[in-house]
Design a protein that fits this description.
Blueprint lengths: L1 H24 L4 H8 L4 H13 L3 H9 L19
Helix pairs in contact: 1-3, 3-4
């Protein structure tokens, strides 16, 4: 039962990331969708939700995604969602 709940959270977090990225940056490549789909760590996905909301460019999100669970700070101008203005 606990495994099912965790899988549901993983799927929900992935869908949240897809939705946020599409709203902010447009359609996503298959490679990005597959890379996010492979992430099995809830903490990493939840951090990426914050990154997706705050990264001014898709490239910043992708760099953070490549960091895996090693990254832990989401601060500074690099994460200013108004950085494009």
């Amino acid at each position: 039962m606990e495994f099912m709940n965790e899988q549901q959270f993983l799927m929900g977090d992935r869908e949240d990331i897809f939705t946020i990225l599409r709203m902010r940056f447009g359609e996503l490549s298959t490679d990005i969708i597959q890379a996010i789909g492979k992430i099995q760590d809830l903490s990493t996905l939840q951090r990426l939700i914050l990154v997706a909301c705050n990264a001014p460019h898709l490239d910043v999100f992708l760099e953070e995604m490549r960091e895996g669970n090693q990254a832990y700070k989401i601060t500074g101008e690099r994460f200013n969602p108004l950085g494009l203005i």
